[in-house]
Amino acid sequence: MSSLILASSSAYKKMLLQRLQIPFTCVSPNVDEVQQKGEQAHSMAARLADEKALAIATQYPGAVVIGADQVGELDGTILGKPNNFEAAIKQLRAQSSNTSKFHCGISVMKQLPKGKLFRKTVLNTTEVTFRALEQQQIESYLMADQPYDCAGSFKVEGLGISLFTNIKSNDPSALVGLPLINLCTLLSEFDIQIP
């Protein structure tokens, strides 16, 4: 079996990949995550996943590399990582009683001899409907979970689940940032079978 590399420094993605019980290493890609002019959220997620995988695959020929990126959007506006309490309040206020989409791109690739690339990419979209949130509920939630490094300002694997009325997804791990059902299918094309 080829060596497997997760092109990420994300603790969330690492935790998810560990669930598959296969050996892997993490290598952080140096990729600019800025939205390109006119770029839509789903295109941005797919592009960044591909760029992350490519950055590492070219450094480690023969390794199977997983790149993933998640981009949230509300009514066409990108929901980035808030990075602080005030920005998180603003994001959650905007999402209150609304439905946001979270697009997760996954790109798996391997650099073959003579520099050729074998790559497979998939995009997974999850819709999240928020309940009506009062200011005090938002502040209490943020103090408890502190999701400042999470797009959309919530941790679905934590107390963030209490903010929603509905989640529409074909993969329960997608909202955390690495859709494992999709990933298992992609890895099988690289002769990595799970379990």
Structural overview:
The protein has helices spanning 11-18, 41-57, 85-95, 135-145, 180-188, and strands at 4-6, 25-26, 64-74, 77-79, 99-111, 117-130, 164-168. With 195 residues, it is an alpha/beta fold. It is built from five helices and seven strands; from the N terminus they run βαβαββαββαβα. It is elongated, with a radius of gyration of 17 Å. It starts with a strand and ends in a 7-residue tail after the last helix. 29% of the residues lie in helices and 26% in strands. Strands 1, 2, 3, 4, 5, 6 and 7 form a seven-stranded mixed β-sheet that branches.
Strand and helix map with partners:
Layout: E1 4-6, H1 11-18, E2 25-26, H2 41-57, E3 64-74, E4 77-79, H3 85-95, E5 99-111, E6 117-130, H4 135-145, E7 164-168, H5 180-188
Parallel strand pairs: 1-2, 1-3
Antiparallel strand pairs: 3-4, 3-5, 5-6, 6-7
Helix pairs in contact: 3-4
Brief sketch in words of this structure:
This protein has helices at 11-18, 41-57, 85-95, 135-145, 180-188, and strands at residues 4-6, 25-26, 64-74, 77-79, 99-111, 117-130, 164-168.
CA-CA gap between termini:
13 Å
Order of helices and strands: EHEHEEHEEHEH
Unreliable stretches: none
Query: Total number of helical segments?
Result: 5
* Average pLDDT level: 94
Rg calculated over all Cα atoms: 17 Å
Biggest sheet, in brief? 7 strands, mixed
Percent range of helical residues:
25-40%
Number of strands: 7
Strand content: 25-35%
The computed structural class is alpha/beta
Give the overall shape: elongated
